[in-house]
Amino acid sequence: MHEMSLCESILQTLEQQAPLQNYAKVKTVWLEIGALAGVEIEALKFSFDLVVKGSLADAAKLEIIEIPGEAWCMPCGRNVPVRQLYDECPLCGSHQIQVSGGDQMRIKELEVE
Asked: Cβ(87)–Cβ(11) under 8 Å?
């Protein structure tokens, strides 16, 4: 379950930014997670609650913004939607596609005090 280590990295980022951004408490974290990022959202939410206990983000809400997967299809010469890695192009059926979006996770926004 790598979601626990992802949450530890999120908390580390929040703690590093607190003195730089002048906040002492995090109330809400908005995360953008791509459909191709390989993150199990329910496991991430569960892990987040455990990892932030006793920290500046204790009891913070975790809001998830899901980003759809997208890939460049070489035969079609255009971006196409994909649901998972190694999908075929929904237009031509080719497997000559390269992921071009929806494979990242990032902190989009914070609500802090």
From this structure: no
